[in-house]
């Protein structure tokens, strides 16, 4: 679902320097492009499909939130002038979340989103989406790999931590606020999406959780 509404006001959450830890500066020049992540998410046809490793459920979830709550801060994803970094779960990641929450396996992307909306409601989906957005910073993959134990503040208000398990092999895990779930990894080869723009995204293997779901 394409996002047409932009956010009139948005307070950037920025970065939290936890215990003196901050993100290392990016080696490359600061990006200046203003193509939004909403445009990127909708670029593959704006519909559900059978590819579990793209981002159709995320795209449709954003649209569902904005349809129900037009003033939601999620609309910042459509304003390409606002710097941010999104850590984007694949459709498979949402399928696994739906299985965990409902104890059922859903065979289509549409059924996954319907099940999630029924299980937790649109407000919770909004909070989960915002928890994947770090506003005010364009964090490329090279910066993330140099930032072990960096604590990132999200547009939802919570934080998660970057855990660089292997800088050599590019193994990075994100530790969220749910101690009972599996923490996601960055997906090598699916990083720096929308590169060159101030809104950038990195694919992750599981959905980040702002609380114990």
From TrEMBL:
Tell me yes or no: is Signal among this UniProt entry's keywords: yes
The record's keywords, sorted A to Z, are:
Signal
Q: Write one Pfam family the protein is assigned to.
A: Fasciclin
The residues the entry assigns to the signal sequence are: 1-29
- Annotated FAS1 domain residues: 42-208
Q: What is the organism field in this record? A: Cellulomonas humilata
Q: What is this protein called?
A: Fasciclin domain-containing protein
Instruction: State the InterPro entries in the record.
Output: FAS1_dom_sf, FAS1_domain
